[in-house]
Amino acid sequence: MNRIKKVVILGGGTAGWLSAALLKKVLGAVVDIELVESDAIATVGVGEATIPPIRLLNQVLGIHEADFLRETKATIKLAIKFENWRAQGESYYHSFGAPGRSLSFCHFHHLWLRARQQFGDMTPIWHYDLNYLCAEEGKFAPITAKDPILELPYAYHFDAGLYAAFLRKFSEPLGVVRTEGMVEQVTQHPDGHIKSLLLKDGREVGGDLFIDCSGFVSLLLQRKLGVGYDDWSHFLPCDRAWAVPTARFEQTLPYTRAIAHQAGWQWRIPLQHRNGNGMVFSSAHYTEQQALDLLLGNLQSEALADPKLIKFKTGRARKQWHHNVIAVGLASGFLEPLESTSIHLVQSGIVRLLKMFPHNGVDQATQAEYNKQSEAEFVYIRDFLLLHYHVTERTDSQFWRDMRQLQIPDSLKHKIELFQADGSIFREQHDLFHDASWLQVMLGQGLLPRDYHPLADSFSETQLKEMLKSIKTIKQEPLAKLFSHDEFLRRVCPA
Predict the structure, then answer these.
(1) Contacts by 350-357 with C-beta closer than 8 Å and gap 24+?
(2) Mean pLDDT score, 86-103
(3) What is the pLDDT of residues 171-207, one digit of tens each?
(4) Which of 265, 303, 440, 443 is the most exposed, having the fewest neighbouring CB atoms within 10 Å of its CB?
(5) Is the overall model pTM greater than 0.90, yes or no?
(6) Could you state, in order of their start, the residue ranges of all structural domains in the chain?
(7) Active site residue 77
(8) CATH T-level fold of 6-48+159-231+313-362
(9) Residue 39 reports pLDDT greater than 90
């Protein structure tokens, strides 16, 4: 085995430059990093919305939030608002917060369930969630509170193109070498490992470890090494997306909107300089023209460019690490942008690689563990996304009828049945989504447990009612002190 001295990253965009930034920041002088990309190849900027772990990533990189917000035209994301998913005309939030205050052996929602079942208290559980309250009132400011009950977890919406440029500007001074060029040929060692990339201008870029960030093409992992693809289209049939930027609204909402239609859903993402809009749809149920007409008819502000069609197949590479190639980003798989997981999967893939980074060459046991963890992460995200589609009351179109009748994976079936029985939610290792996330989506889609944890009965009726009232008051207290979202942005990113 040979020591890993040089890493070659094929492809730029968010996946490539995020990989370069993290690897170089953490490993420093231990490895050389060269990133090969071509300005002639456009990147897929489906995801402009993120989830809270990106803040930890920025901290690791040493990126100041104000610089990040300014350079990427970012706004704050407290939640996703799901509209028309359970039923037309109804909505709920999947916020980044957690409702109430949990006990040691009993989550808050069990107390809420008892109050609902025994006392007829129909207060929505989101009224005990600070993220929800702030989203509804359009307010935000970072909260540093000693009491976890007042935590306000958040993420960002940003311009994916500007983010990649920002990361490049960050990475190059650290020592990342960027090479402009198109790959003509990929050479291999006798053992199957990738040896080098031959560029169209005749240059050769060799390395010890290769990271495939070539998008859906997956030039190294799929085209060259042929690892195969687990097609999950039968679970997640949406396979197309139209994307179009529009003029920003006067008020900048601190959440993403996901608006369900008859055969897919529409996203609306607020940025400082524009809105991101798109329509994710199933080509088996909508024609491309039907989806485009539906999107253009629901923009609510002026289009700033021609719509762009993106085709994809939900699923994952059967191995995300094979020989000396690790696929990151779209080259590793795609699970549609419903819960803004794409950028996180880039982040988690590179963090996983850093934890298992091969020192003296690729070891099969390390490779197998990496692939095992990657697969588990993809499976749990797949199940979480499928929950939104399968558990619904909608029967108004063939798409929704098909999703209701779908034979879902046993893993998701068990999770649903467990929650329905007694409100239990257990987080699996490598599951990106916390208990509060599963809770909000299951309740939002119409699932309601038949029973609750017996600890909820340890309080008298008066005690329980007072406790719920107190929690609600505590959650509401910060609202008066917080800025509007737009005022926060003006303070952090003055014009």
Answers:
(1) 350/18, 350/19, 350/22, 350/23, 351/22, 353/23, 353/211, 353/326, 354/22, 354/23, 354/26, 354/27, 357/4, 357/27
(2) 94
(3) 999 999 999 999 999 999 999 999 999 999 999 999 9
(4) 303
(5) yes
(6) 6-48+159-231+313-362
(7) yes
(8) FAD/NAD(P)-binding domain (3.50.50)
(9) no
For residue 182, give both structure tokens: 């198109």
Please name the residue that has the structure tokens 């060269």.
34
pLDDT of residue 282: 97
Burial class of residue 201, CB neighbours in 10 A (0-12, 13-18, 19+)? exposed
Query: 10-34, pLDDT tens digit by residue?
Result: 999 999 999 999 999 999 889 999 9
Residue 359: per-residue pLDDT? 86
Interatomic CA distance for residues 210 and 71, integer angstroms: 29
Residues 69 and 492: beta-carbon distance below 8 Å: yes
| CA atoms of 408 and 427, how far apart (whole Å) | 19
Q: Note whether 316 and 228 are within 8 A (CB).
A: no
pLDDT tens string 211-228: 999 999 999 999 999 999
> Which of these is catalytic: 77, 81, 139, 319?
77
Look at the block and give the residue holding tokens 């010890």: 208
Coil vs helix vs strand at 175: coil
DSSP letters of 271-302? -SS-EEEEEEE-TTTS-HHHHHHHHHTT--S-
Q: In whole angstroms, what is the distance from residue 119 CA to residue 101 CA? A: 20
Classify 127 as helix, strand or coil.
Answer: helix
Amino acid at 160: A
The helix-helix angle for 342-355 and 364-390 (nearest 10°) equals 160
46 — pLDDT class (breaks 50, 70, 90):
very low
Q: Check if the beta carbon of residue 409 is closer than 8 Å to that of residue 380.
A: no
Spatial CA neighbour of 137 closest among 471, 469, 478: 478
What value does the mean pLDDT of the chain take? 94
Q: Which amino acid is at 103?
A: L
Identify any residues that bridge with 32 across adjacent strands, giving them in sequence order.
6
Distances (CA, A) of 19 to 9, 61, 208: 8, 11, 16
Residue 104 CB burial class (10 angstroms; 0-12, 13-18, ≥19): exposed
Q: Write the pLDDT tens digit of every residue in 351-368.
A: 999 999 998 889 999 999
CA–CA dist 337, 315 (Å, integer): 13
Is 217 within 8 Å of 223 (Cβ atoms)? yes
